[in-house]
Amino acid sequence: MTVKNGRRWNHNIHYHPRILRAVPDGARRALDVGCGEGMLARELRRTVPHVTGIDLDAGSIDQGRAYGDDVDYVLGDFLSHPFEPASFDVVASVAALHHMDAATGLARMRDLLRPGGVLAVVGLARNSMPRDLPRILAAIAVGTVHRARKGHWHHPSPVVWPPPVTYPEMRALAAELLPGSRYRRHVLWRYSIVWRKPRD
Fold first, then answer.
1. Which of 8, 14, 45, 193 could form a disulfide with 51 if both were Cys (CB 3.0 to 4.6 A apart)?
2. Can you give the pLDDT at residue 6?
3. In whole angstroms, what is the distance from residue 28 CA to residue 68 CA?
4. How confident is the model at residue 43 (pLDDT cuts 50, 70, 90)?
């Protein structure tokens, strides 16, 4: 585990700003799905008064709680935990959707949002060879430069590899389940989805 200049960096953390920029003005309640030890949840708490992080990994939740902040860390299954429907202004998730059925997970996130709320996801998907070879080579090159400059922090959460869903499949799911969402594929092995729930 390498941390340079006192700051953590890895491929997931690199895209946290995309999540944070999506937080709507006036948001009061946020949910971090697959929060791990809570780094994103704590970043959300800087602007959102009430933040809940949920994860299935007990060790990660214990680490989050050890920070002594006022994030509400929940050990449990996001898909079955009894959250109230339409109870969050922000639902965020980084590198967690591939740990569950993607369609079920996206639908659950959508249903937990209040009208006007924002869903922001950064996820992993599976490359398709040989079509994705240029993207893979670009990711290796860019990632190598970032690690040399910033180090690389290894998160304590369980790993699922390879992701079960491809990038085109994720784009199609987002279009189907979250009409009008913004899907983008990023260079460092990630995609993002940002969607605002209609108010009608």
1. 45
2. 62
3. 20
4. very high
Tell whether 96 is covered by a domain: yes
The Cα 158–Cα 119 span in angstroms is 23
What are the CA-CA distances from residue 18 to residues 83, 92, 184, 190 (Å)? 25, 10, 11, 12
* pLDDT tens column, 46-93: 999 999 999 999 999 999 999 988 999 999 999 999 999 999 999 999
Q: Global pTM?
A: 0.92
CATH label of the domain that carries residue 101: 3.40.50.150
Chain position carrying tokens 């922000």: 90
Residue 13 lies in a domain: yes
**pLDDT of 19:** 97
Structural domain contains residue 44: yes
Residue 61 lies in a domain: yes
Residue at 116: amino acid letter? G
With contact defined as beta carbons under 8 Å apart, do 195 and 182 qualify? yes
Range of the domain at 68: 2-126+156-196
What's the number of domains the chain is made of?
A: 1
Question: 110, 180 in Cβ contact below 8 A?
Answer: no
Q: Is the pLDDT of residue 7 over 90?
A: no
**pLDDT score, position 2:** 61
